[in-house]
């Protein structure tokens, strides 16, 4: 049974923290913004979390209507965000912006999977996308698939393979982190840190425009 803790305060910040303030909760939300995930997938991505603690957090998050359980065709349980959980995208984005001002401390562990990349970059793309952008991009990061779809003023970056992309991009996790942290420019990233394959002529310029605007959101 998940433990119920509360500040017992009427302040809306305290009421929010009653639901998302426990250790690991925001990181679980972060990873689920990349799309639905199995328990084992979430545990693998959250390096260091024990199975019983993840179970506890998922149980409480379900009772708080932040996530819900669904089933794949073959019966495997998936966890996915509810509409309430989806509303944490801006919260996570602003928290990432706040966190960038602080230096790294100690030995840093690489995540067990790269779902972590989707939350802030996806929100930045959503904030930057224009109504004229229509684009499907396959992004392969150290062998892990992401799908960026932009259409009619909406943009979404999810942890899955593309079926019919306008272009494909292949890069590394280190290069993506350097790009989103502002350590390298998009021009340097495009020229030296990734491979492009264009299937729909001209869409590479739409992608470059969207990414440039998204990086301004991330670094602004």
* Coarse morphology: globular
Q: Percentage of helical residues?
A: 40-55%
Q: Oligomerization state of this entry? A: single chain
User: What fold name goes in the CATH topology slot of the largest domain?
Assistant: Nonspecific Lipid-transfer Protein, Chain A
Mean pLDDT, to the nearest integer, reads: 95
Order of helices and strands: HHHHEEHHHEEEEHHEH
Q: Architecture of the largest domain, according to CATH?
A: 2-Layer Sandwich
Query: Helical region count?
Result: 10
Structure description:
- This protein has 220 residues and is of the alpha+beta class.
- It has helices spanning 12-20, 25-32, 39-45, 51-63, 83-86, 89-99, 116-128, 173-180, 186-192, 203-219, and strands at residues 67-71, 77-81, 134-141, 144-151, 154-158, 167-171, 194-198.
- The protein folds into 2 domains: 12-81, Winged helix-like DNA-binding domain superfamily/Winged helix DNA-binding domain (Arc Repressor Mutant, subunit A), CATH 1.10.10; 115-219, SCP2 sterol-binding domain (Nonspecific Lipid-transfer Protein, Chain A), CATH 3.30.1050.
- The chain has 10 helices and 7 strands.
- The longest helix has 17 residues, at 203-219.
- It is globular, with a radius of gyration of 18 Å.
- Keywords: DNA-binding, Transcription, Transcription regulation.
- This is HTH hxlR-type domain-containing protein.
